[in-house]
Known about the structure:
The structure is a homodimer of 200-residue chains.
Chain A lengths: L13 H21 L5 H8 L3 H7 L3 H23 L5 H16 L5 H10 L6 H20 L9 H17 L2 H14 L13
Helix pairs in contact in A: 1-2, 4-5, 4-7, 5-7, 5-8, 5-9, 6-7, 6-8, 7-8, 8-9
Chain B binds a DNA duplex (30 and 30 nucleotides) through helix 1, helix 2 and helix 3.
Amino acid sequence: MSTAGPAPRRRMRADARRNYERLLTEAGAAFAERGTDASLEDVARRAGVANGTLYAHFPTRQALLEALLGDRMRALAGRAHELMDHPSPHEALLLWARAAVAHATAYRGLATSLMRAVEDETSELHAACRSVLDAGEHLLGRAQRAGVTREDATAADLYALVNSVAWAGEQTSAAQAERLLSFAMEGLRPLGTVRPARGR
Amino acid sequence: MSTAGPAPRRRMRADARRNYERLLTEAGAAFAERGTDASLEDVARRAGVANGTLYAHFPTRQALLEALLGDRMRALAGRAHELMDHPSPHEALLLWARAAVAHATAYRGLATSLMRAVEDETSELHAACRSVLDAGEHLLGRAQRAGVTREDATAADLYALVNSVAWAGEQTSAAQAERLLSFAMEGLRPLGTVRPARGR
DNA sequence: TGTTAAATCGAGACAGTCTCAATATCTTTT
DNA sequence: AAAAGATATTGAGACTGTCTCGATTTAACA
């Protein structure tokens, strides 16, 4: 639950702030149990508020997701920058990808929203998605410069890969997602090289 | 457009048969342009039929998909069996995976349905999905016995992989899907081996 | 306490899913 | 060729959901 709030130009009225927080709480709960397609009518009901109020605060579903996840996504981007110091560029990339998958699995249906939002400039989630994609690009670039990752892989590929794996995890199990991720990340190693017998 | 029809215990009435075919045609068109979430009300409208008629013929959306895709899916399974004779087990697996991705990309949203249906025994699509999964298992098994594919990969992994890639393709582009597929399939090679410099 | 800007309310317009009793249509039989 | 019987179609209706906007309420501040 973020404490940042909705970018208030001036301080919000007390009732507005209260409703904003309640809506966020209930939306988080609803998304957690029903996925990102949960009924917004229901969210408003659970927050004890008319649905018009929900739409006043969050004009779109993506706005709700941004409010719910924006901070965490920026933290994920930050984590990528920290990992730039990790001794093994390939390991760093794998660790970060794993974290990104975990993030994209927060709610059922989230991977789809994240994928849509990165393309759609008008989405409230767009900026957060971009920051994640850009962060991935740094890690990927370092791995490529170190010669431990295929040159033809792009940041967009990495973003799609992470979200695809998260999507698969939503449909089946976290264990399968982890296995898929390890396959795909191994597949990013350059062709014509000997791969370490232990996948680390 | 299948000519198999709806498993008629006895011959269908002429009007029923006509409506069945029309519904299938329009559903195919609607799914093609709107994805698998297209409005069924609209499908019925376009077919010039009341929506109750649609539900009489196809009790669920998945029933419609089975009628539309069942034959093609069984053909895909058949293709796997043909490929068992291919000289390169790894190449055979790759070729088949590519065909499976192409199939799962027929409609936007299809990958999700295919993933759901393989888990859900009550789905009308379940049997067709199983036959695809089982077919993949044969190809995968041969590649593993030949020592060109990781032992820890399962048929479920392959199924999930193919559908994840198809999903990514839906969200972005066929080109990116192809790249993701090639990464993942390379990643299926056994650890501790030298990989060919050209991905074939 | 009165004023005012801000926020909330909730009915209403619309679209979609799915069901089922009434009705219509085809097929078969005589 | 008409009636009987089986089969299929109809479309209104009960839901659930999205989203908007004019009327109303409420908090903030002098």
